[in-house]
């Protein structure tokens, strides 16, 4: 299939000023994505299919955080809310009738990989559901006459769920708000809800195979250590870093890299179910890594970070072994991975990683 954000908060609250621009990137839980995932799950492979749905003589039943949903017939008109779900629905062969505009979308309102795929496969784009400050836009959703509403990577509340089910059968998040689990399990759950289990398994196997092939093409990645983190704000005193169950970390490991030996320290300082923590700049030199990968709001933040007097002397930065994405498309594609976004971002990502190991860093963005 391959062709050739939540930003963490820190104890100092240094990212508070960016919150408004990152709300859709998973609204704080944005990316429990990155938790986005279940701790300890493997990014490249997932041995057992998701067990959140089951077929019955009356249809398919999907268990989730707000109860269970029965999909009595194969759906044809699907509203896909939040991150990731629209990609999966389209990849499984159905053009959503409506989606929400999410962080990382271009001027058209669609993420570039989604727009390219849907245009090629279906010839027309879904309706963009207008945003409201009060949760889902029920009137706009109802007007689309859906027979299924999917919102696995959202924060749909109990009340919102009840109102949505008055419109059509609804599948919200499975366990925790803003936590879709791994991209594999999310693909399988959406596939089950769409009566497309076999196609979902095919997509997972194909994408895992693509990741493995890229790893095989780059044996130099094997054993190299890395940290996935964030750019600094002006005046920032700690560097945000992601934990081992974040999808950005898991995908990079699937390509052959090894997380920094400081990961245990990162985990010990993380609060609650957070998928990130912060490293004080005064302790940064204790974090061993051959490579630093990060994302920021723009290229200027990347430049500011690597030119910081302390950060500039940190091992991977001093060796020019870093990749910093300051563009929303790449940041969004790797932060909320799907079979479509990985197809879009991995070739560039792998090339950038390989170049960084040769002392040719990347700082992208406007």
From TrEMBL:
<dbReference type="InterPro" id="IPR051313">
    <property type="entry name" value="Bact_iron-sidero_bind"/>
</dbReference>
<dbReference type="GO" id="GO:1901678">
    <property type="term" value="P:iron coordination entity transport"/>
</dbReference>
<feature type="domain" description="Fe/B12 periplasmic-binding">
    <location>
        <begin position="77"/>
        <end position="361"/>
    </location>
</feature>
<feature type="signal peptide">
    <location>
        <begin position="1"/>
        <end position="34"/>
    </location>
</feature>
<dbReference type="InterPro" id="IPR002491">
    <property type="entry name" value="ABC_transptr_periplasmic_BD"/>
</dbReference>
<dbReference type="GO" id="GO:0030288">
    <property type="term" value="C:outer membrane-bounded periplasmic space"/>
</dbReference>
<comment type="similarity">
    <text>Belongs to the bacterial solute-binding protein 8 family.</text>
</comment>
<protein>
    <submittedName>
        <fullName>ABC transporter substrate-binding protein</fullName>
    </submittedName>
</protein>
<keyword id="KW-0813">Transport</keyword>
<keyword id="KW-0732">Signal</keyword>
<dbReference type="Pfam" id="PF01497">
    <property type="entry name" value="Peripla_BP_2"/>
</dbReference>
